[in-house]
Amino acid sequence: MRFVRPSAAFALIAPLTLGQTSSPATAPPTATAKASAAPVQHHRMAAGERFAKANTTHDGHLTLAPAKTGYPTKAQHFSEVDTAKKGYVTADRIRAWAKAEREQRHVGQQAAAPPIKG
Q1: I need a labelling partner for 74 at 20 to 30 A (CA). Which of 46, 84, 100, 107 fits?
Q2: Which stretches of the chain are assigned E, i.e. beta strand?
Q3: pLDDT, tens digit, for every residue of 65-105?
Q4: What is the pLDDT of residue 43?
Q5: Residue 6: what pLDDT?
Q6: pTM, 2 dp
Q7: Is the separation of the CB atoms in 37 and 77 below 8 Å?
Q8: SS3 50
Q9: Which option is the CATH number for 47-112: 2.40.160, 1.10.760, 1.10.238, 1.10.287?
Q10: Distance of alpha carbon 53 from its chain centroid, rounded?
Q11: pLDDT in tens, 36-66
């Protein structure tokens, strides 16, 4: 009877301890592949790069038709950017318009924010 208790206890504990001693080499290949794979970096084009890509004539003037295919975000606001109504916009004009839009949003956010009570 003395040998029954220790052997029964060993029979219950052995599978638990053996399961904890697995080495990383026996890990499934998907787990190691995910851990070693570097995250994919996506290139976000700057405004100048996007303008250069859309400006197919390379004359510094972007008309509405090339803007629709190469710079759709500015094509949506083309009439707002082209304040002189020349039929084209330049990179400098787009930057000035974007800066004015940011400032206008900033002022609007400050006006909409409730005052801080101290």
Answers
A1: 107
A2: 62-63, 88-89
A3: 999 988 898 899 999 999 999 999 999 999 999 999 999 98
A4: 79
A5: 59
A6: 0.55
A7: no
A8: helix
A9: 1.10.238
A10: 21
A11: 677 778 778 888 888 998 999 999 999 999 9
Structure tokens at 22: 């697995």
Please give the single-letter amino acid code of residue 21.
T
In the chain, where the domains are located: 47-112
Average pLDDT of span 5-30: 57
| pLDDT for the residue 110 | 74
SS3 99: helix
Q: Name the token pair of 89.
A: 């916009």
Residue reference for tokens 């052995």: 14
Query: Alpha-carbon distance 48 to 29, whole Å?
Result: 43
Dist CA 27 CA 7 (whole Å): 31
Tokens found for residue 42: 């996506």
Tokens of 60: 């510094």
How many Å apart are CA 64 and CA 85, to the nearest integer?
12
Those residues whose C-beta lies under 8 Å from the C-beta of residue 50, and which sit 6 or more positions away, are 70, 71
Cβ 86 vs Cβ 115: under 8 Å = no
